[in-house]
């Protein structure tokens, strides 16, 4: 592993967490075609994307092609991989009650941003004032 990956992999997926979830990752064993990209690196890319709120296309190249990371995220959402990961982490840490889940899933409010419409921007007729006065008709028309 190169030094660049060490910088990008700043510990979003700890070794302890990876030991829990690695056995749950889908396998291509026995299937033809290209081997899957490194699951841990892909999970690091997914975590980076959600931590920063960046578009998928802005994913650093150290995580591989953004399309690969997005496709894996999409697949994990559909095939139940995320649910299995969540269930294993919950059971490993003895998290059963919904109140414990709130603590597990807490969000640092310093990184949460409100949409401009939630921030009290003035509106005219339901549209943002800037789009109503710019002469464009708003919403990219």
Automatic annotation (TrEMBL):
InterPro entries: IS402-like_dom (IPR025161), Transposase_6_like (IPR052909). Residues 13-86 form the Insertion element IS402-like domain. This is Transposase.
């Amino acid at each position: 592993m190169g030094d660049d990956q060490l910088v990008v992999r700043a510990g979003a997926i700890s070794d302890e967490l990876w030991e829990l979830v690695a056995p749950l990752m889908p396998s291509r064993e026995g299937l033809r075609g290209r081997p899957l990209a490194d699951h841990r690196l892909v999970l690091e890319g997914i975590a980076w994307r959600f931590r920063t709120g960046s578009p998928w296309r802005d994913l650093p190249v150290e995580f591989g092609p953004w399309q690969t990371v997005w496709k894996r995220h999409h697949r994990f959402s559909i095939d139940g991989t995320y649910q299995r990961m969540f269930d294993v982490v919950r059971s490993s840490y003895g998290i059963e009650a919904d109140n414990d889940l709130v603590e597990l899933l807490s969000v640092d409010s310093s990184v949460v941003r409100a949409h401009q419409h939630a921030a009290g921007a003035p509106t005219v007729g339901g549209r943002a004032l800037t789009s109503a006065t710019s002469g464009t008709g708003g919403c990219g028309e």
